[in-house]
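re: the backbone from monday

yeah here it is again, tokenized this time
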């Protein structure tokens, strides 16, 4: 060991590392590790590896199937009704030289209409219709207007003048 330390201090680190690795390899017991697989050894197949862990795989599958079954028994199915409404702004027309009518349109006109569709006055008026009053959706609800405010959504199309109105309830 003394020579190894002298080499480190003399600036010859490469020789010191070589001497240290030789010293460490002399201490290793060759019988401590299993022999390496030779050229004639057959590699394990994926089936052999899976067969060793068959109980873990089986337990995981049973737990997954049981959890899925319990979830499906308790989950409430949801039904979605959707309507697509084409909105056209009516207002003053500007006559061009080609005699075509061009409307001045606000950029947020469709968004305003979508907000109006989901507003409380419009939803309250819709709830007063005779066909809507008897629906099973509103039978167990104490505040039908509040329920509709949460359940109805109106989204504006990205490249068209169409508003998508949808309602999601547990009843068809």
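seq for it, each position gets an aa:
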């Amino acid at each position: 060991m003394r020579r190894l330390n002298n080499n480190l201090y003399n600036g010859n680190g490469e020789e010191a590392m070589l001497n240290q690795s030789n010293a460490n390899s002399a201490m290793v017991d060759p019988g401590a590790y299993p022999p390496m697989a030779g050229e004639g050894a057959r590699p394990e197949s994926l089936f052999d590896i899976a067969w060793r862990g068959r109980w873990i795989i089986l337990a995981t599958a049973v737990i997954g199937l049981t959890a899925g079954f319990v979830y499906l028994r308790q989950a409430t199915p949801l039904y979605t009704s959707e309507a697509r409404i084409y909105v056209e702004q009516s207002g003053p027309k500007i006559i061009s030289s080609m005699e075509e009518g061009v409307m001045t349109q606000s950029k947020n006109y469709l968004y305003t209409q979508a907000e109006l569709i989901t507003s409380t006055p419009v939803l309250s008026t819709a709830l007063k219709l005779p066909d809507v009053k008897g629906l099973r959706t509103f039978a167990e609800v104490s505040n039908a207007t509040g329920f509709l405010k949460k359940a109805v959504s109106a989204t504006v199309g990205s490249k068209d003048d169409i508003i998508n109105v949808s309602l999601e309830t547990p009843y068809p």
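Residues 87 and 161 are 6 Å apart (CA to CA). The helical segments are 2-9, 13-27, 46-52, 54-74, 109-117, 120-127, 130-133, 144-151.
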